[in-house]
Amino acid sequence: MRRRWTDLPLAVHDLIAERCGAVTAVTAPDAGEIAEFAAAVDTDADRVFVKAVRLDSPNLWMAHKEAQAAPAVQGIGARLRWQEQADGWLVTAFEYVPGRHADLSPDSSDLPLIAGTLATLADRLTPAPALRTLSLAQRWAGSALWPRIAAADGLTSWQAAHSDALVALEARASEAVAGDTLAHTDMTAPNILVDGARVRIIDWSWPAPAAAWVDTASLVPRLIAAGHTVDRAHRWAMTVPHFAVAEPAKVAALASVTAARWRLRAIQDGGPWLTLSVAADLWAADLLAVGTS
């Protein structure tokens, strides 16, 4: 649950004031749900973006990962200002990154800017900087989400009709996404900020070495959910050189895992995950013939 400024211990308030200046305003973001506290903090000296998490939180590791990744992605990601503990909380301050959430809808002028940024990012982060983090291949090793969904009677009619192919693709996913590019692995519109012609990618809480095309591919079903046809979303992805040379069978394996993960979220949480799950199925269906050949 997201905490308010007034929920934080006074020691955290004092730490921020000591490091950044007297606090004059606190503005919570309109997206994001993982950090216990996150806000743009105005002080008499500057504006910073602050995140805070309790030291006993199961998500503490994500705060450490984001801070570790920050030097490698500086200039495209948010610059790390500092990270310290106070009264049982880990507090991280980043530069405040101006901009609005990316518009992923058809004909959005953001799309070519995002494609260019993804290409630049993959070039810059290959080989992957040395971070203490699992690769995406390691994270997905042994993934068996489709059998779990089937056992819970959660398959859609399309998923049930193609379950053997989806299971086979999921089994190949760990090998398919292996690579030596540091990937963001959580590409969403709120994590892509656009300010004029500049694009910044924030919230590097899930960094992982992976194939250079992974972050681009992960946006394809989000474009479909935003109103693109499958073909149009695919044509956008092909403008990123790393995706253009990806093996279709490997992309299909990633699509299978994405469809499974989003189906689970749709079952558990409903809401926007229902739309995203349908989009992931459309993408997987388009790739299925290639991926199982």
Automatic annotation (TrEMBL):
Domain of life: Bacteria
Protein name (database record): Aminoglycoside phosphotransferase
Species this chain originates from: Kitasatospora putterlickiae
